[in-house]
Amino acid sequence: MSIAVQHDDFDFAAEYAALRNRHRETGAIVSFVGLVRDFSDAQTVQHIELEHYPGMCENVLAQLVEEATERWQLLGARIVHRIGKLHPGDQIVLVLAAAPHRADAFSACEFMIDALKTRAPFWKKQTTTHGSEWLATKTSDQQRAARWNPEDRT
Amino acid sequence: MSIAVQHDDFDFAAEYAALRNRHRETGAIVSFVGLVRDFSDAQTVQHIELEHYPGMCENVLAQLVEEATERWQLLGARIVHRIGKLHPGDQIVLVLAAAPHRADAFSACEFMIDALKTRAPFWKKQTTTHGSEWLATKTSDQQRAARWNPEDRT
Amino acid sequence: MKITLLYFGRPAEKLGIHQESVEVPDTLQTLHELAAWLGQRGEAWAHELTESRVQFARNQTLVARNTPFAAADEIAVFSPISGG
Amino acid sequence: MKITLLYFGRPAEKLGIHQESVEVPDTLQTLHELAAWLGQRGEAWAHELTESRVQFARNQTLVARNTPFAAADEIAVFSPISGG
């Protein structure tokens, strides 16, 4: 499977090795890892809780991998996203793209994380020293995701 | 040191872990790994030999990290490039960028590898079943590097 | 008509509900109308289901609030998504 | 004037030389002129140092072939770079 939604931490090195060894034509592997930051708007983050929509969420992630594979020349792609209670420094999400050439790997990796932010049904509740709140989709994330829409391309 | 030029293979997992643990404000780590492909223009690659200009090469790589750090909000960056005889599947180069936000990490990582291709004094001699040849800078690499020139930005 | 309602994120927490099977009036056509109808359950419901606070999925696809729905649909109501 | 010449990549291999300390005529001003002067060493030199085949670094900085050079400079002559 090219995607996973899991409570457990992921092993970046193992995920990278699996993708690296899949094809001998692979010339470039680009990865993105998202981590829990310890500060948010100048408040100390104690933990976050990540919830997802089971079924739909996995389908959307698989769809993102499929779209990336149709749009760029890839030899492999992988998305792993964690759910549950996470603390500052913890890994949240991993996106990997392997390709013969780096331009494809960079675009595919960035597309997948940008699209995940606006299309994958995850919810993040952040607890700081000032209390808890459900975080909203950032405007900057909506703008970054919109860059990949075919009608917006120049 | 944020850069290294070495004969030995690099340990991607160890490099990633070192960068991840450096700052608690890190929210995004983007990495690029370049690998020796087994085919080049439909010829089977047996091995490549990588030569560098000692001194100048390390200075250029350090300069790329410095430029990236000035241009984007980064919490860490690292470039490791191998020299010597490498075989298909071998890792050639690693570029890592850590930042509070992913836009900076993606741009910095892509800038560093694009600029490395046109500015860092490495030479690659490729041996296929048809013989050996010194590879030239690709036109596509020159174009990708030119995208980052300030005067070309729109 | 009978539909399945799922709640995620803020409304699930604030309204204390994750899933329900509910009989809704056949006169309701869009998700917007459904949200307004659910809002009649009380002040907390009206507050949490305010237009700016929720998004919808119909049968596991993100849709706009003016989307029609039908009997046997799985409708999810949630605060803006925020993964990654 | 005396300069240090370094060779990398294809010219280093084809001409069988990596480094030399050499006395060049004071009349030579640019790297282009230096390459032409070195090309007089023979057919292989003329061939390898053809304009389209080589790039230059002066004191460890990539420079254009019309760049002037001076005594005590470290001049590197190499085929187009191809790292990464």
Q: Could you explain how this protein is built, in words?
A:
The complex is a heterotetramer, with two copies of chain A (154 residues) and two copies of chain C (84 residues). In chain A, strand 8 (122-128) and strand 9 form a beta hairpin. Chain A has helices at 12-20, 56-71, 102-119, 139-146, and strands at 3-6, 28-35, 39-40, 43-52, 76-82, 84-86, 91-99, 122-128, 131-134. With 154 residues, chain A is of the alpha+beta class. In chain A, 33% of the residues lie in helices and 35% in strands. The radius of gyration of chain A is 16 Å and the shape is globular. In chain A, strands 3, 4, 6, 8 and 9 form a five-stranded antiparallel beta sheet that branches. Chain A has a four-stranded mixed beta sheet with strand order 1-5-7-2, sandwiched between helices. With 84 residues, chain C is of the alpha+beta class. In chain C, 26% of the residues lie in helices and 29% in strands. Chain C is built from three helices and five strands; from the N terminus they run E-H-E-H-H-E-E-E. Chain C has helices at residues 9-15, 31-39, 43-48, and strands spanning 2-8, 19-23, 55-58, 61-63, 74-78. Chain C has a five-stranded mixed beta sheet with strand order 2-1-5-3-4. Chains in contact: A-B, A-C, B-D. The A-B interface holds A 12-13, 16, 20-21, 24-39, 88-89, 100, 102-103, 105-106, 109-110, 113, 140, 144 and B 12-13, 16, 20-21, 24-39, 88-89, 100, 102-103, 105-106, 109-110, 113, 140, 144.
Map the helices and strands.
The complex is a heterotetramer, with two copies of chain A (154 residues) and two copies of chain C (84 residues).
Chain A: E1 3-6, H1 12-20, E2 28-35, E3 39-40, E4 43-52, H2 56-71, E5 76-82, E6 84-86, E7 91-99, H3 102-119, E8 122-128, E9 131-134, H4 139-146
Parallel strand pairs in A: 1-5
Antiparallel strand pairs in A: 2-7, 3-4, 4-6, 4-8, 5-7, 8-9
Chain C: E1 2-8, H1 9-15, E2 19-23, H2 31-39, H3 43-48, E3 55-58, E4 61-63, E5 74-78
Parallel strand pairs in C: 1-5
Antiparallel strand pairs in C: 1-2, 3-4, 3-5
